[in-house]
């Protein structure tokens, strides 16, 4: 066996070891840090109240069924969220509707709330809640997560005032004083929400 062949085999072995280590690390990460799955618990109700208040305390809203999660990574009668995400996101797995909620009763019964996620600048992950009236017009918006901290969340604290009453938006509607890339991420979030809610309404709403 020539030295060249030996070196090639060593290099291949190193690559195999690296691949095995990387896969193992990913499996461990998934085990200890599971993928985020929206669920209707007390913490989520507290967030939902910021965009579509039920008129009762958080625990009472949870116990009393004031909100319903009717789409969460699964097909339902109202909305095929898997197909929607596949059609919308293209090659970017970070652009997706995480869940859709309906307000079942209380002060804002009949409203919809979307929970969406996109990537903005670099690896910045944005998760946004947006509420809509029964006609599909934006009511309120709440940025609930930015991976690079409170700075961008503060930049977009006035989205409700900018977008309330709209049923379509463009970049100038969400442009902050920060980077255009982060604004593009917010735009994608709201655009997904608008399209999802319109699809739900066209299908007859949340049954």
Can you offer a commentary on this structure?
- The protein has helices at 3-32, 42-48, 58-63, 81-89, 150-155, 159-163, 171-174, 180-202, and strands at residues 67-71, 96-103, 112-119, 125-132, 138-146.
- 43% of the residues lie in helices and 18% in strands.
- By secondary structure, it is of the alpha+beta class.
- It is elongated and about 80 Å long.
- The protein contains eight helices and five strands.
- The chain has a five-stranded antiparallel beta sheet, sandwiched between helices.
- Strand 4 (125-132) and strand 5 form a beta hairpin.
H-E string: HHHEHEEEEHHHH
**Percentage beta strand:** 15-25%
Low-confidence region ranges: 25-33
**Which strands sit side by side, in order, in the main sheet?**
1-2-3-4-5
Q: Oligomer, anyone?
A: single chain
The pLDDT mean sits at: 77
Number of strands: 5
- Major sheet, described briefly? 5 strands, antiparallel
Shape: elongated
Kindly name the structural category. Answer: alpha+beta
Rg, alpha carbons: 21 Å
List the total number of helices. Answer: 8
What secondary-structure arrangement, pairings included, does this model have?
Elements: H1 3-32, H2 42-48, H3 58-63, E1 67-71, H4 81-89, E2 96-103, E3 112-119, E4 125-132, E5 138-146, H5 150-155, H6 159-163, H7 171-174, H8 180-202
Task: Briefly characterize the structure.
The chain is an alpha+beta fold and 207 residues long. Helices cover 43% and strands 18% of the residues.
């Amino acid at each position: 066996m020539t030295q060249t062949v030996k070196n090639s085999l060593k290099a291949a072995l190193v690559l195999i070891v690296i691949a095995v280590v990387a896969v193992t690390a990913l499996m461990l990460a998934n085990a200890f840090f599971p993928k985020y799955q929206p669920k209707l618990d007390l913490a989520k109700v507290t967030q939902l109240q910021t965009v579509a208040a039920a008129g009762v305390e958080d625990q009472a809203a949870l116990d009393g069924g004031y909100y319903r999660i009717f789409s969460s990574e699964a097909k339902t009668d109202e909305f095929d969220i898997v197909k929607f995400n596949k059609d919308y996101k293209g090659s970017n797995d970070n652009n997706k509707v995480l869940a859709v909620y309906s307000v079942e009763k209380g002060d804002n019964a009949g409203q919809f709330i979307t929970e969406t996620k996109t990537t903005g600048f670099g690896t910045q992950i944005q998760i946004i809640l947006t509420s809509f009236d029964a006609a599909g017009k934006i009511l309120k918006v709440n940025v609930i997560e930015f991976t690079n901290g409170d700075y961008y969340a503060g930049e977009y604290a006035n989205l409700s005032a900018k977008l309330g009453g709209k049923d379509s938006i463009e970049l100038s509607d969400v442009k902050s004083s920060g980077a255009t890339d982060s604004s593009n991420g917010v735009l994608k979030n709201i655009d997904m929400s608008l399209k999802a809610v319109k699809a739900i309404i066209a299908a007859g709403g949340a049954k």
